[in-house]
């Protein structure tokens, strides 16, 4: 039988937001891999997974999750992680990889699947979608992501504040990920584009340290890496005005 690698989205952190299909996939796999940084501490994905599977089934694999400047170090970490997961697949047959959010949205699983596919011929790769941080923040803050014909733009601020500014100058809601270290720049761009007052940001969603606040409160102090921003457009015309 072919080995199987399944990327399972476990949501933004609240264990109640893992889908039934996601829980079933975690329990069905022989091994559940969770990503950790090289410091080795328990990550949010692992903390979520442990609500549904026993600890002895979980294997930590180191990824260079925050490495953006040293390409050689990042590539070496990806190679080592791929070799580790490939070995687990050869030994056990089925591996689930738990990823925060969704496995097809800015997830480490993308790179892992590419690497493992080259190391394990015939491996079946599949994904189970997960609830994203933008959906959870919208629910917790009361922000509406889209109405009628509005577009929705998702921007990783690691691409630069100019990319965010361009998106904010357009129509529809803009969601920003990975902006914690550049919160001051983000606040300034929101101000310049007239989006500051209606924008909201959140971090640690669904966890005891959860924070959901108006973007107008950002003072330049670095925010947690896993922070999310929603900047809705100015809406008028009453109910159905965007249809």
Protein architecture, described:
The protein contains seven helices and ten strands. With 243 residues, the chain is an alpha/beta fold. Helix 6 packs parallel to helix 7. The strands form two sheets. It has a five-stranded parallel β-sheet, with helices on both faces. It has a five-stranded mixed β-sheet with strand order 6-7-10-8-9, sandwiched between helices. The termini are far apart. Helix 2 links the parallel strand 2 and strand 3 (58-62). The model has no long low-confidence stretch (mean pLDDT 91). The protein has helices at 20-28, 44-49, 71-92, 109-119, 133-141, 161-168, 183-192; strands at residues 4-9, 31-36, 58-62, 94-99, 124-128, 152-156, 173-177, 200-203, 211-214, 227-231.
Order of helices and strands: EHEHEHEHEHEHEHEEE
Q: Spans of 5+ residues with little confidence (pLDDT < 50)?
A: none
Calculate Rg over CA atoms: 19 Å
Strand arrangement, major sheet:
3-2-4-1-5
Largest sheet report: 5 strands, parallel
Q: Indicate the percent of residues in helices.
A: 25-40%
The secondary-structure class comes to alpha/beta
Q: Based on CA inertia axes, which overall geometry fits? A: elongated
The overall pLDDT, averaged over residues, is: 91
Measured between the Cα atoms of the first and last residue, the distance is 50 Å
Q: What is the count of DSSP helices, taking H or I runs of 4+ residues? A: 7
Number of strands: 10
List key phrases describing it.
243 residues; 31% helix; 5-stranded parallel beta sheet; alpha/beta
Summarize the structure.
With 243 residues, the protein is an alpha/beta fold.
């Amino acid at each position: 039988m072919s080995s199987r690698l399944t990327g399972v989205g476990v949501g933004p952190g609240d264990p109640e937001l893992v889908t039934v299909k996601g829980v079933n996939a975690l329990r069905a796999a022989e091994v559940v891999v969770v990503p950790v940084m090289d410091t080795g501490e328990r990550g949010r994905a692992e903390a979520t997974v442990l609500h549904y599977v026993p600890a002895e089934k979980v294997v930590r694999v180191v990824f260079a999750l925050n490495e953006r400047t040293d390409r050689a170090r990042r590539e070496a970490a990806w190679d080592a992680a791929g070799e580790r997961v490939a070995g687990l697949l050869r030994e056990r047959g089925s591996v689930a990889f738990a990823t925060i959010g969704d496995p097809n949205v800015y997830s480490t699983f993308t790179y892992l699947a590419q690497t493992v596919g080259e190391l394990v011929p015939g491996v079946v790769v599949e994904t189970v979608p997960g609830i994203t941080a933008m959906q959870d923040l919208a629910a917790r803050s009361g922000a509406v992501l889209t109405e009628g014909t509005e577009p929705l733009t998702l921007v990783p601020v690691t691409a630069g504040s100019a990319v965010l500014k361009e998106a904010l100058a357009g129509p529809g809601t803009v969601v920003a990920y990975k902006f914690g270290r550049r919160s001051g720049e983000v606040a300034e761009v929101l101000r310049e584009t007239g989006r500051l007052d209606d924008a909201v940001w959140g971090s640690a969603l669904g966890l005891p340290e959860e924070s959901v606040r108006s973007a107008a409160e950002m003072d330049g102090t670095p925010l947690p890496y896993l922070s999310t921003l929603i900047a809705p457009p100015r809406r008028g015309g009453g109910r159905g005005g965007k249809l």
